[in-house]
Amino acid sequence: MKLLPFLRPLLEAAAAIALMAVGLRFITSFFASKSRVYRPTFLRQFALAFWPLLCLGVGLPFLGSFFYIGTVPLYEQVLLGFITAVVLGFSVPALVLHAQYYARNLDTTLVFDPKQNILEVYEGRVRIPFGKSDLIRVERVTCQSRRMFWSNYNYIKLHLRTGEVLTLTSLLTRLDPVAEFLRNTPLEHQQRWFCFV
């Protein structure tokens, strides 16, 4: 097990950096006003990917045992295969969704303030002009299960009269208030096991 002494300092450093980032964000939140501009921030990504990354981090030492597969008895190989399937089955779908959402909304900025009746979407620095009357259809896609690591990943698609489709993912913000804001539009709610865009 030469892999463990090398892996432990990396995991400790990653945990220390994550703790410092969360601590700094917590302290600065006392001095900041509530934002109405949403982007894929580190803290939002960390909140969504925490459990899948933790599961993968716990399972990685077991996955390192595959290098010694010839010296391991058969029952341990079966147990190792089962643990690998569980770890990858829980973490990989969430990480794939996270990567897909990040690629989709990397340059997207959402300006949302329901009290002021503001919903604006920017791609890069360009504002996509639309109003509620320009929405032909709004798709709200959520996960069927509430207990899986990927159940917090969901999205809203705004279909405009121009034929353009704007996708807002949960990487930007919680989408429940946005869906509530759009309740008087032609809103279609769908549930899927995996909310691939």
TrEMBL record:
It holds the Pfam family PH_40. Keywords: Membrane, Transmembrane, Transmembrane helix. The chain crosses the membrane at residues 6-27, 48-71, 77-97. The keyword Transmembrane applies. Residues 37-180 form the PH domain. It comes from the Bacteria. InterPro entries: PH_40. This is PH domain-containing protein. It comes from Hymenobacter taeanensis.
